[in-house]
Write a structure and sequence with these properties.
alpha+beta, four-stranded mixed β-sheet, 119 residues, 31% strand
Length: 119
């Protein structure tokens, strides 16, 4: 019985580790959201949005690049879910842990906007 439990635990750890290696994917709507650093003119502010990727358990299995891309894609997806098509990045944060070699999480904070489509 102990061997079966140990094997199941090992398989679960591998699955979680591999799942942690990839970044959040953009939805079809999220992929259309433009990320900007300056406040867009003539757009309606929808509110603040926070995108994140990683945590203390999965962060060590995910590259710093994938953490940031995942956080940005999460930001895009949440902006699209609010009805926005542009997000202005306000700040970014990379979380660390004393026992980790690099970042374990990335967070991007922004303002979601609904802007008229350009011609």
């Amino acid at each position: 019985m102990k061997a079966k439990f140990a094997t199941s635990s090992a398989v679960l750890a591998i699955v979680l580790g591999v799942a942690g290696c990839s970044s959040t994917k953009p939805t079809a709507q999220g992929a259309a959201v433009e990320i900007v650093t300056e406040k867009p003119a003539g757009c309606r502010l929808l509110g603040e949005v926070v995108g994140s990727q990683g945590n203390a358990f999965s962060g060590d299995f995910t590259s710093d690049r994938a953490l940031m891309i995942g956080a940005r894609n999460d930001l895009r997806n949440k902006t699209a879910a609010m009805g926005g098509n542009v997000v202005q990045v306000q700040s970014t944060l990379n979380g660390t842990h004393p026992y980790s070699a690099g970042a374990i999480s990335s967070t991007v904070v922004g303002n979601a906007f609904a802007c008229a489509a350009s011609k």
